[in-house]
């Protein structure tokens, strides 16, 4: 699935996926939400981003995880 609000550039944040036009990584969005911050709080912290970009970060991460290969615990031991 395309994610027009997410971009990757080796010259920006070491190529990590970021919100387009920012240096805010998808990772930091996920970490902040995982810490219990709300989308509204993130918008207050970074008034130059949009709610749609936060949703795009979540969608990007979900798509990334859907294509990951996981090794079961039994196989890793």
Please give a structural write-up:
The chain starts with 5 loop residues before the first strand and ends with a helix. It contains 4 helices and 2 strands, in the order E-E-H-H-H-H. The protein has helices spanning about 25-35, 40-45, 50-65, 75; strands spanning about 5, 20. The chain is globular, with a radius of gyration of 14 Å. The model has no long low-confidence stretch (mean pLDDT about 90). It is mainly α and about 80 residues long.
**Element-by-element helix/strand order:** EEHHHH
Q: Main beta sheet, described?
A: 2 strands, antiparallel
Question: Low-confidence spans: pLDDT under 50, at least 5 residues?
Answer: none
> How helix-rich are the residues, as a percent range?
40-55%
Count of alpha and pi helical runs: 4
Strand content of the residues, in percent? Answer: 5-15%
Query: What is the SS-derived class?
Result: mainly alpha
Distance between the termini: 34 Å
In angstroms, what is the radius of gyration? 14 Å
Give the tally of β-strands.
Answer: 2
**How much is the average pLDDT?**
91
Overall 3D form: globular
How do the strands of the widest beta sheet line up side by side? 1-2
């Amino acid at each position: 699935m395309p994610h027009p609000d997410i971009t990757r550039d080796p010259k920006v944040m070491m190529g990590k996926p970021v919100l387009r036009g920012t240096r805010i990584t998808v990772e930091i969005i996920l970490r902040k939400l995982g810490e219990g911050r709300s989308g509204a709080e993130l918008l207050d912290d970074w008034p130059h981003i949009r709610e749609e970009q936060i949703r795009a970060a979540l969608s990007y991460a979900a798509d990334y995880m859907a294509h990951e290969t996981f090794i079961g615990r039994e196989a890793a031991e």
